Every structure is written in structure tokens, then in C-alpha cells.
Amino acid sequence: MRRLAFCAAIALIAAAPAASVAAARHAGGPCSQPPQPYFLYNGYNNCGTLNNAKPAVFKLAKPTHITEIADYHFNNGTGAPGGTIGLQAPNGYVFGPFHAKQDQDHNWIAMMNITVPAGTYTIVDSSPSTWSQNPASRGFGFVRVFGAFVASAPALPKPKPGAKGTGTSPSTTSHPTCATPAPSTYLISPDHVAPGATPSFLLGCGKATSLGFQGAFAPTKVLIYDLQSYTNLKYVNGFLQPISPSFPVRPPVTATFKVVGPNDIDVTVPASLAPGQYTPVVVYAKGDVAPQNRLVVT
Fold first, then answer.
1. Tens digit of pLDDT for each residue in 61-75?
2. In terms of pTM, does the model score above 0.70?
3. Domain spanning 39-149: which CATH class is it, in words?
4. 172-297 in CATH: which number?
5. At 160, is the pLDDT very low, low, confident or very high (cuts 50, 70, 90)?
6. 3-state secondary structure string, 122-172?
7. C-alpha to C-alpha distance for 234 and 19, rounded to whole angstroms
8. Domain with CATH 2.60.120 in the chain
9. CA 15 from chain center: how many Å?
């Protein structure tokens, strides 16, 4: 396994190379890192970290063979027990999730052997509440992707059963693995739906009511952002705000919802939403909560 080095002199600073050799590159600045040829994508930077990262999104310009993904879980210097890392493809299919082990520098390391076509991919980390981010990363989780570009790749598999929406609320058996700990995030099921469909937002199965949608995480509204606008937001005191006037954010669409259990709400996707990728945000008294996966309107 490749060694991931960090600067030990400053506990809150992750030191490692920067920017993707694919289309998306980080701008230079005090937090930037020198490029390295063995990173397909590098979302780490040299500035102090916070928790509660948004799912990292990166673009591959060519077909790619991926061998390793690393997420940083500094978590105020305590780290976090290893969990899982998945890779969500543009069509919603999720490779993995792959088991991730924590190393001595608080990196979660997941090994894999997958070949994927060019496109935009999303990292699915099982513990967003401890996943590191900061303003320099625009709130997105620190991630590194290792591998090599290749001449070709097989077509993406179709999303697994239960991931494709049918326009009705899914049954309990079609729900994905529950998110923990509440209320840092939630899961959308199914995440591929037609306008007017009613997917479920699922929070930590088995959690006490006081920690669920009927308790401390009781939603006041559900806002749906287009994917580009969501990437131009950052967390400030628990609430999402535009990064700066230079990064435009289109007004979100408000969705109606119904609390159907302590850990489950059904949300009606507005009929006005055009086909595309979206990030719903659940608003409650103490902040805005984003999902682990994206909503794809077909």
C-alpha cells in the first residue's frame, strides 16, 4: 500500500500533493499542494480541517483503472474507526462500498480493482460526520484517488435493484443501509426517480425517536439544489451559504414532505424539476443536512 505522508509538526494540517490530472484542478494558493503523478485526483490541501464534509465530486477525463481511494478523517486529532468508501458513477450505480482501514495518519484506505469510463464521480463515505473538509476544499471531503488512465473501460453497470424510482414510495426492504450517526447525513431511496415521485429520506435505522426525524432532527423544510449550485455552497455555523458572490447559486426548489417514522420521511419530487442531478437538503432547527447520495431525476 502506498504510504500517505502528513506533516506532523502541525496537527491540524494534512500535507500532501494537490489537484487532479483530470479536468477539475484546485487553484493555487496558501492551501494548495504540489502535483504528484500518482494522484488521479487529490482533494486534500494544507490548511486546518473541520468535520461534516460534503460528498466529494471529481471528474475523470479518460477511462480509468482505480486501485485505491483514501479519505481523510482527522476528526479533531482523534481519527475515526475505518468504515466504507463507495464510488457513485454518473448513472447512479455505486461501486462497492469497499472496506476502508484507518492508518496512523487518520486516512481511511480502501483498496479496489475497478475500471470505469470517463465521467463525473462521487465519493460515498460511511462517516461524513468525521470526514475532513475546510473552506479551501469548499466543504467537500478530503479524498485521493489512485490508479491510471487506460485505453478503454466497460460500460457502467445499471443501478442495482431498488435504486431506480418507480414514482411510488419504496418498501422498507428497498431501503439502503442506514446512515450513522444521526443527524449528520441521510440516504435517499430510491435515488433515481421521475418528477412527482415520492422517495424516502432514511436516517439511522434503529436510532431512538429523539435522534430521528421526529425528534432532534425534526425537519422544517426540504430544499432541492441543482448539483452545480450545491457545489458553490459552504457550511457556516451548520447552515449552507454561498462561498462568495463569484460562485452563483440558483434558488433551491422547496419540496413537500411527510414524516412517516422516527427515521424516515417521504419527499415529493416537484413535477417542475427537469431531468438532471440534484442535492436535497433537509433544514432543521440547528442547521442544513445533506445526503450521502445524489437525487437523479430521470
1. 999 999 999 999 999
2. no
3. mainly beta
4. 2.60.40.10
5. low
6. EEEECCCCCCCECHHHCCECCEEEEEEECCCCCCCCCCCCCCECCCCCCCH
7. 20
8. 39-149
9. 22
